[in-house]
Amino acid sequence: MTLKPNGQQVTIREQIIEDAPSGLTFVFEKLPSGLSKLKIYGDLPLGNREIIFDQEGREAGGGTCLTGCHPTWLHEVSD
């Protein structure tokens, strides 16, 4: 793959994947603390799930996700 002459490295902080066949939405987030978060939304028997991973990729926590499925950077715009 060729690189742009003045290209710079970027860090992806969030990625959203909607899987139509399963009806699930996966939200991957990289937190400022270095932790990573995976949220899974959809028709799950025990509700939407949230899993947190430490800097080495080991599970550091998890549970039922109580927030809605939307990008963390998306804010309501008011007039």
Q: What are the defining features of this structure?
A:
79 residues, mainly beta, five-stranded antiparallel β-sheet
What does the model show?
- This protein is mostly beta strands and 79 residues long.
- It has a domain at 14-64.
- 0% of the residues lie in helices and 38% in strands.
- It is built from no helices and 5 strands.
- The chain has strands spanning 14-19, 24-30, 36-41, 49-53, 59-64.
- A 5-stranded antiparallel β-sheet has the order 1-2-3-4-5, with no helix packed on it.
- A hairpin with a 7-residue loop joins strand 3 (36-41) and strand 4.
- The protein is extended, with a radius of gyration of 16 Å.
Helix content: under 10%
How many E-type strands?
Answer: 5
Mean pLDDT: 82
Per DSSP, the total helix count is: 0
Globally, the shape reads extended
In oligomeric terms, what are we looking at?
single chain
Poorly predicted residue ranges: none
Biggest β-sheet strands, sense, barrel: 5 strands, antiparallel
Structural class: mainly beta
What topology does this entry show?
Layout: E1 14-19, E2 24-30, E3 36-41, E4 49-53, E5 59-64
Antiparallel strand pairs: 1-2, 2-3, 3-4, 4-5
Q: Short description, anyone?
A:
With 79 residues, the chain is mainly β.
